[in-house]
Amino acid sequence: MKQCEKGHIYDEKAYIDCPYCSQNGAVGTRPLESGGASAPEFPKTAPLESSSAPNFPATQPVSAPARPKKEMSATIALNTNEAGISPVCGWVVVTEGDNKGRSYTVHSDKNSIGRGSQFDINLSFDNAISKEGDATITYDSRGKKFFVTLSSGKNNVYHNGNLLLTPEEIKDYDVLEIGTTKLVFRSFCNEEFTY
Question: What is the pLDDT of residues 168-183, one digit of tens each?
């Protein structure tokens, strides 16, 4: 491909000179193989900056449909209960057993622990854990404390190595043992912060 002095681009293998300029009155443009056939008709184009560019009708801009105006209103604080959000209050992390290092979020109010999708803390990887649920971690938002209690499951639950028989308060780095799994507890909500 070649570009002429006026900016037209043409195939130099097919034409000696610019076929676009020859249509505007230039002399000497001819096909390389002139076997009596006339040159093919070229579209009338010109470089954008050329003054010889044809004047086509201007395109009318298309306007987007008007959007309805929104009325301004005051900002309202998010009420987590109305929005269906259960705030994060802490975590338990698997430190022994399968899935070591996996964490589970402890939300406000009650968090059931068991083997099955119906439990908040689903330890489905441990077959020694009851399908009925073995324990519950509860966050008391008024007292800003966490408690662990037994559920209806058949397994023993240990809190810091001691058999859990009644509800007990749990604190940071306390260890819960259920089945073959050990969980370490960490709080997010405490005396320094709560929602």
Answer: 999 999 999 999 999 9
Report the C-alpha gap between 13 and 32 in whole angstroms: 7
pLDDT tens string 42-93: 555 555 555 555 555 555 565 666 666 655 544 444 445 556 678 999 999 9
Query: In the structure, how many helices (H) and strands (E) does the chain have?
Result: 2, 13
Cα dihedral sign for 94, 95, 97, 98?
A: positive
The β-bridge relationship of strands 103-107 and 88-96 is: antiparallel
3-state SS, one letter per residue, for 27-61: CCCCECCCCCCCCCCCCCCCCCCCCCCCCCCCCCC
Whole-number Å distance between alpha carbons of 65 and 6: 42
Non-local CB neighbours of 33 within 8 Å, separated by 6+ positions = none
Q: How far apart are CA 131 and CA 152, in angstroms?
A: 10
Amino acid at 35: G
Model's pTM, two decimal places? Answer: 0.57
Instruction: Provide DSSP, 128-166.
Output: TS-TT--EEEEEETTTTEEEEEE-S-SS-EEETTEE--S
Calpha distance 125→104 (Å, rounded)? 13
